[in-house]
Amino acid sequence: MDIKTASALSRLRLVSAPEAVSFLLLLVCSVLKRTTDFNAVPVMGAIHGLLFVLYVLFWLDAWNRTKWDLKTAALYFVLSVLPFGGFYAERKLKREAESAVIASRARKEGVVGA
């Protein structure tokens, strides 16, 4: 993988955790809306919607650059709609991005087998 691929993975990773947090907060706000007079759903819904759209755009870019198979691409998409999936995706993407950077540097330096 080249450095642009690693950047695409990093962008997806950086938005996955905030997207997961916003999803959990939206769930909490939904419960509070129905049990109290507190209604933050419109605000949290907008924030979560923006983060989800960013996640999907970055996911498409990463899929295009990494040439993931359909199973891997579907896994990362499904993780975005599960309440704690974004945290798992963030850890997995961090490892994948670090591996991509290491491989890119090794190729740049001419290390055999990279």
From TrEMBL:
Subcellular localization, as worded in the UniProt entry: Cell membrane
* Residue ranges annotated for the DUF3817 domain, each copy included: 9-95
Tell me yes or no: is Isomerase among this UniProt entry's keywords.
no
The UniProt record lists the keyword rRNA processing:
no
Query: From which domain of life does this come?
Result: Bacteria
Membrane topology according to the record: Multi-pass membrane protein
Database matches in Pfam families: DUF3817 (PF12823)
Q: Which InterPro entries match?
A: DUF3817_TM
- Keyword annotations of the record: Cell membrane, Membrane, Transmembrane, Transmembrane helix
| Membrane spanning residue stretches | 39-60, 72-89
In its UniProt entry, what is this protein called? Answer: DUF3817 domain-containing protein
